[in-house]
Amino acid sequence: MHVTSLNLLNTIQQLNNDDNVDGIILQLPLPLHIIDKTEEFINCIRSDKDVDAHSILNYNLYRQKSISLITIPVVAAVREILLEINEPLQGKDIVVIGRSKYVGTPLALMLSQTVADSKNSLVSDATVTICHRDTHINNLTWYCKHADIIVSAVGRPKLVTHRMIKEGAIVIDVVPGGVGRVTVACLISNLLELARQRKKMK
């Protein structure tokens, strides 16, 4: 089925207005013919149904370290993994590979600040270096070899090889076979939180 901008906008509005719907996810990336309107569609989703936390209100709350009920699922997944590992992050050198608005950038923000919320506390204050798919391989190799933790969120297989990782370093690969299952769990957690809040408001 060929989805038009109008079709998608109408569907989002129908879901926004449906009291039986507690969460809305816009599967990204969108088809090429409407991909340039991605942010417009995302911001049409009501913030209290925005399970991905991508709408401008939820995204800005996160960036400003304000009280936010939900966190971008990928960011929450990496946080949960680091909490499970229980590795102190203060003073560590961390490389985040990827600078996308909804993954790499918020990940770097989380890891470079002291983050505390109602669910979990992750004291970071690490030194974070952001690389990306166009970082020269020699520079990327150098940064990775000196990193205590590497978070690869660039979506390119085999970008980081074993020769680029120092002994004892932690590597988190943000892909379906890596962090994917934890991300899904965090997504469901967001949905439950939004549903609870909506129930309180009724």
Overall description:
- The chain is 39% helix and 11% strand.
- With 202 residues, it is of the alpha/beta class.
- The strands form 2 sheets. The protein has a 4-stranded parallel β-sheet, with helices on both faces.
- It has 7 helices and 6 strands, in the order ααααβαβββαββα.
- It has 2 domains: 5-69, Rossmann fold (3-Layer(aba) Sandwich), CATH 3.40.50.10860; 73-181, Rossmann fold (3-Layer(aba) Sandwich).
- It is globular, with a radius of gyration of 18 Å.
- The mean pLDDT is 87.
- Helix 4 crosses helix 7 (180-201).
What key phrases describe this protein's structure?
single chain, 202 residues, alpha/beta, Rossmann fold, two-stranded antiparallel sheet, 7 helices, 6 strands, globular
How are the SSEs ordered, and which strands pair?
Blueprint: H1 5-17, H2 38-42, H3 56-63, H4 73-85, E1 93-97, H5 104-112, E2 115-116, E3 121-122, E4 127-131, H6 137-145, E5 149-152, E6 170-173, H7 180-201
Parallel strand pairs: 1-4, 1-5, 5-6
Antiparallel strand pairs: 2-3
Helix pairs in contact: 4-7
Summarize the structure.
The protein has about 200 residues and is an alpha/beta fold.
List how many beta strands DSSP finds: 6
Q: Provide the helix percentage.
A: 25-40%
Reported by name, the CATH topology of the largest domain is Rossmann fold
Q: Report how far the terminal alpha carbons are from each other.
A: 36 Å
Count every helix, treating DSSP H or I runs of 4 or more residues as helices: 7
Oligomer: single chain
Q: Please compute the radius of gyration using only Cα atoms.
A: 18 Å
Any idea how many domains?
2
Shape: globular
